[in-house]
Fold each of these.
Amino acid sequence: MDETSRTTLELLYNISRELTSDLDLRTVLSRVLMLSSRHVGAERASIIVLDGNQAVEGALIVNDLLLERSVEHWNNVLQDGLAGWVFRNRQAVMLSDTSQDERWAQRPDDAVSRTGAKSAICVPVMAREQVVGILTIVHPRPHFFNQEHLALVQSIADQAGIAIYNARLYDSLQAVTRRYRELFDDSIDPICITGLNGQILESNRQAIALTGYPAEVLVGKTMQELLKLPAEWLKDHVETLGAGQTLHQEALLWTASLSTVPVEVHVRKVAFPNGDVLQWILQDITERKQLDALRDDLMAMVYHDLRSPLSNIISSLEMLNMLLPVSDDENLRALLSIAIRSTGRMQRLINTLLDIYRLEAGQPITSRAMTEIAPLVYEAVDTILPVAENKGQQVDVQIEPNLPPLNIDADMIRRVLINLLDNATKYTLFKGKITLSVYRKGERVEFAVRDNGPGIPPDALEVIFDKFARLQSERFPKGIGLGLAFCRLAVRSHGGEIWVESKLNEGSCFTFALPIPQTEDGLSMKNN
């Protein structure tokens, strides 16, 4: 995923969170416009909210300032200009040059002597197949917007349509108490109203059904008690709530039957006539968690199904290598060698995926054995040596003599070393140098893989160990982002730790440490 795609997804995610964090229409509109205009560097952005054929609300952002406009103003805008055309035709429009399109209503600042021509995108905001608004984004430079910008603004408008619809419900609740009561009880999400201390004052029918407690029993309980949150949780977030922001938290809801339900919790402060309260919206995410588990099970099944035929291929290639006469064509033997190395790489990847699945599930390592370090290290080096030699790289191995054996899963630690060495060959330039050092330090044995590649940005030093994390730069090789995640899981499962030190344009050093096993008298094993 490139940087543009990542920032676009981040914007849509932030807008989605903002739209679900507040139901006040004016607040929602201003937040959407502010995020949208900042992302594309727009000069102005506006959104008109419609009820039938009439404008009932609107918001305008100009150079990051929210400006007030009357309902009459917004209805006049709908009569002429681009917004009116989009409303009547229910079609999105992108203008490369506003001075060249008659649908654009010229303003005084559009004159050549002032800010001049601009580019604009105008899209209908839809909700339940009805036009509920018009969203317009204007950039001060002509020919700025492209199809990607149009698709992005349309996505924002789609989310805004849902937000406008929900905000109208909220306004109705504020205006009509009876209607509020009906919507509160009929909400598809469990909702609890509490005091600022988290003590429940009121719950809707969905909350009563989800918790299994009668309404009169729920009153007086605290949400911290139901969700097993720390007693100080609300106090720790009082500033966030006081600023009008919404808290988001995944938790386990304990029901009356002492069973648990995974929920996503959204907490916000609401101003009531008799004082501020907290609104807790609980979303049952049981199905999502089950789907996650099903996905993991499916992945594990696929990996298992891949292992068997791949093992057959590897065995067949090794048999061919053994049966092939020494005098045969060297080119044929070279091709066979490439095939053997490539299938070996595939097998290591599949085993890595399986180990990630098992280790994340908390399964212990069952195949530990006392293992000599030097043979293990040289086996890992031999695996990556052909690639390093093809790039003219020098691989230097330094092993401290008389190191004690380690109680480890040899295959897993070998793959950790191969992953780190493989990364070093990828990031090290042609004719560069890679050093693998193994030495004892206190009660641990440390393995350090150093390269003289481009280095890692400081803000990425921790992120790179996360699953699917990749460095976003043209100079970095592409990958699926599982290698270092596996390394961290594997090392930690052995009671060790892994870290990286890096300087830009100088190189990186990945180091992991494994504990030396203890003898029965509690002393570490003597050096051999």
Amino acid sequence: MSTLKDIIAQYIQSRRASRYSEHTLQDYQNAFRLFSEFVGEDIVFEDIDVQTITRFMASEHVRRVSKKTARNYHTALSSLWTWAVENGHATINVVRKVKPPKPEKREIIPFSRDEIEKLLDACMGSANPQRDRAILYLLLDTGMRASEIGNLRIQDLNVYRRHILVMGKGRKERQVRISERTLQAILEYLRTRGISNLQKHFHAPLITTHSGHQLDRNALRLLLFRLGARAGIPKVHPHRFRHTFAITYLRNGGNIYTLQKILGHTSLDMVKRYLKIAQIDIDRDHDKASPVANWKL
């Protein structure tokens, strides 16, 4: 009989063969490690039942993390059991019998133009100002996720069409357009690395660390935190740029279905939240700027 340890090892191997991103696999392995600590890695896989999953989701292992992280644990385990059922290691997906925690709806606060300008100015005090400015322009101009920025290669940049090929969640590709200013910021940064002929460096990372390695999401978060501290702006993180892009895009008349494709969302749920925020801002601006209100007719 296969143990939990055996099934996890086979699952990870199969996902690597399917070219899952290392970020996704790392998140899954974190969930599996906690679950293995809870039930014991040598437990027979088929002996794990709905009650076991329920106890784990209610345990201190899970209760001490955010609802979002808890949902990620549930997703990882459900993926493991789905694979196990498909490959004859289990008869049913017991994880699906346990409801995941409801997601938190955190307040979405975009950056103001003044804050973005301060962050761009703060880049001049960093060790690699051209790189940091290119990152800020990319994040603000595309709404890309942290992991998506880190996975970019030079070959993903189409200079002539001003497009970037983004590999999103679920290994889904999408083409994202960038502005001329963002393109120039990227090219300026690449020249600091001695790269002017892009074709000779097709497979190199588009953005790197100081040591020349691929910039992962943790390094990106740290970089942005330091820029925020230098600029005196709190809560500077990749997803806030994503929020800022989306809300500003809608404020400026962008289409919600186009925005969904740009952001790589599979549903309109999150885009509708952005739309609601943008509409509140539009209504507020109308109240301030309407001739009827201002002229007191």
Amino acid sequence: MKREDLDCLPVECGVYVLKDGEGQVLYVGKAVNILKRVKSHFYRASSPLKEGMLEAVASVQYFVTGNEHEALLLEEELIKRFRPPYNLRLRDDKSYPYILFETRGDFPAVRFARKKTGGEGVYFGPFTDSRKTREGLKLLRSIFRLRGCTIPESSFPLRRPCIDFELGLCGAPCVGRMSRAEYQENFRKAVDFLNGKYEEIARWIEDEMWKAADALDFERAIYYREKLEALQKVATRYRLVLSQPEDIDFVEVVRDEEVALFVVLRVRQGRLIGSESFVASSLGWQSKEALLREFLEQIYLHAFHFPRRVCVAVEHLEVLRELSEFFPFTVTPPCSGEEEEMMFLALENAQRSLEAEVLRRKKRERASTELLRGLQNVLGLPSFPRLVEGVDISTFQGEEAVGVVVAFLDGVPYPKGYRRFVVKGEGHPDDFGMMREVLVRHFRRLQSGEGSLPDLLLLDGGRGQLNVALEVFRELGVSCPVLALAKEFEEIYLPERATPLALPPHSEVLQFLQRVRNEAHRFAVTFHRVRRNKKSFGSLLEEVEGIGPKRREKILAAFEDLRSLCEAEPEEVSRRLRIPREVVTRLKERLQEVYQHGLSGASSG
């Protein structure tokens, strides 16, 4: 890359994509200032990127977005689509849970969010225990009576409150039981609560309790007394670890040849309120500093409520201090004996977690080897079945027919090997014709060098689907073990057997084949529904006055289906897509009419 090429980059907020000479995506990143961020990769003394990557970068593509939230959405979509090798991915690309405080409207909701780009607002997390996160959210809502629903405020007032009001989880602003001022105060206090300001919140609740008692409103006073007791129980769980009421995250990482284990100790107002562990691949990362930087960039998103400081123990701190240019916190080494003790605690936790992860990994590998060895013996396969592929098709009355291939590597799903096909056969092809087309296209691609032949191919179906595959193999000159698994009696059809093979329901081999078959079915049905809903969605847009081809394209790119648009606020859609609010209102009214009568039928797979 030449410096003059980088000088042409914009200074706006957006997403940048680093590519090699063949156009392959190497790395995707987001930035408040694209020019400054990309230059930091190339011209800082210590690049945060993996060793050897900069030499491979031949071009930079960029996308300017309206704000940081849109950049987050686009970055996640591009990483999901291209799976760049130099982006640090946490184990299994797991979508960790968050608690999201929405920021729009007079009565913003507080809800569980599985994805960090689930909506605009302030995120707390990520957490690693979904059950505890939901329990904590329930406690939070019971104390501050905040709504967790997605009902738009434009629908207020409703005729009656929902069951959350009866359970004491919501103050029912939807029916006027809670004023805007009271709700907003509770909302702010809830944020303070998650930031560890327990003493301040306890004083506030106690004041409200005595106010209610002085007003002889004893029922309300009892309510506040119960909430105060619940809050005090929470506060006693979190020990005081710093003499000063500071907000600091202590981050440590340990690794072996394959796995990196990150630990984050969250300290708020001097109290240790949480410890989270994250697992990622360590392959290709040369330094601890580079690993930590990429990890910090990934978990400290712009939508987060940040600590004031992040404490790390590294030799070359300047690599991490550059993060202060992009995030509103400072990165420092431990500054006191107390902080050194916390870093030692983080290191101990990381080492123990890594040992446990290594043991779990070895156990999974042994179990997977035994399973696949059993599969090889039961089916009489010529080689060990490391790569197993499953094929299925999905359609609804012959419309929007699709086919998919899913891959399992070493007994677990391998998303890089997933493929989707739009069936191009004219008219209304039958199941056998669609299966034939998908198999021909898939194996021709493999023969051209775009992949490896599977050790076993599984078809969702019976003898007919198996015969189609054998015919395709003869035509293409392919040699590949194949079977068909029929749903009704879970019978396995093999080329060399006249009668199907029946395994007992508790057989691990049968259960593995069912997992492959069910994953192919899920993937096919999901793809089919997206295409069918897009088609129906697009035709409905043409009926609305004020929506031409360009606006139609914008809407289809922003919303996958009818439901997601129906649930969005008109003001948000108008601002986000720059479409007049009256046009959005007409569109939503038309779509809600259609939605009430049903848009999607059932899919067959």
Amino acid sequence: MDYRERREMRRNFRLRVGVSASSTHTLPDVGGPYLSTIRAGPRDRHLCFAIIGLSAMVFLACVPFVRVSLPESPAFVVAYNAISTCNDLTTSIILFGHFHLLRTRALLLLASGYLFASLISIVQLLTFPGAFAPSGLLGAGPQTALWLCIFWHGGFPLVVLIYALFHPNSRKISTAPLFAITAAVIGSIVAVLAFWFGATWGTGSTGFLPPLLDAGAFTPWQRVVNLADILLVVAAFILLSLRSPRTLLNLWLMAVMVYWFCDITLSSYLNGGRYDFGFYAGRIYGALAASLVLAVLVLENWRLYRRLAVAVSRLRERATELLQTNEALQGEIANRQRTEEDLRRAQAELGRVSRMSSMGELTSSLADEVNHPIGAIMINAETCLRWLSDKVPNVERARAIADRIVEDGSRASKTVGRIRQLFDQKAPLREAVDVDEVIREMAVLLGSEAARYGVSIRTEPMEKSCPVTGDRAQLKQVLMHLMINAFDAMREKDGARDLLIRSQWEGDSQVTVSVSDTGVGLPQVPPDQIFKAFFSTKPNSIGIGLSISRSIVEEHGGHLWAATKRSRGADFYFSLPIAPQSD
């Protein structure tokens, strides 16, 4: 698997994960997948309008029977208020949670409205005659429960109406969410207490609120105040329908307003009093209205969790694939590392073969380098023996000749040591190496070979010695290859045969060594062609010397190149990093 395939696989993985996390029928605008931010899709609208249509048909079917008397059931009232309280309170808690994340004024207001509805439902149940006491609790009078119901069924639509007036992109609340929620809760409690106080002490002969129930039948004032509640519900529905964009929350709030319209109309406007058919039917609509948004919230959470589960499953599958790919890549890396190690060993062996090949070409010269001191040792030894064999041994002359023997032996030993360094197979070292010293040693080692071809070796060291970081034996090998190539280039050339080896500073971080000859020059090929393996212009050469030399220099952090700017000859350069100064 190459780099492009791995990159394409990662791109497809990101795309698949992104698709799995998106909805097939709704698209979130901003703020994440919340009911108040998700646009209503066609399927959502069809479902909502179908429910509204079905509710309208049931409502019309109930209208003729609204005044039919049915048995009294305070338990039904308790169940209705309990359902409304629990569902409205749960809905408010969820909406407060959404507000904590989105911090919009509209959400805070709507959550407060649901909290107000749940709290006033509790108070209305406690004051309802016959639920817990014949006349109700909390100091309730005969009109208290009715007026609390009016405030309940008018207050919540009013909150929804104001909610619909807020722009979707209105400025968010800058205060801390917990502080805003606390203030909203306190405000809802204060509003419920105020309505309870007004419904309890504002009714009766001395109160400012007119009576709504007289002898078990509704008074005309009941129709008037409930008509006001109905108008609030209709106004809220219209504003919600005009609100854009139409989110899921707005869509289902429209359905809630339809249910509230049916509830108020059947249980408080068209019917004749408590416990008739209209009263029971309207309260069923009210319970459904309290449950509708909560059901949608739960359903949408289920959808989100389902999509999350699918996304997690796909992520696991992709993680498994990535793990398998990673294992394959690890195996490929291990194989590559083994291959590179084999290649390094092969290159080292090839370098050794190259050195042996080069030394084979210098056999006669190296033999002369060793034979000269050995021959001198033998002659001086014979002379020393003669001086010591006289009747009167000349010890002084014998001592002087013995000193010469020691010098010649040391010279032969150094020559053999230089040759052994070129064949040394130890691991490369990184130490401070004096380049000028290496140049001098190689000039001495190859001096006989230069004399054999009539080549004059001249060196120009730096004014101030500067060590480089490298391996002495490998640097000698590079210099030997360049010098032997220079000898071969000048072998068939007439005229002066000069070899100049110069070292010089190159900035503050490198030393450059140049090897210049007066030979035939470089072949007519691209400059880097001569450094490729197995390229050679000599019939008996395998063409690996310059290739190995460049790889050695590059491993040292330097560079090897060639140039020919003169009428004859060629110039080879290699640069090496300066060894760091020790404190």
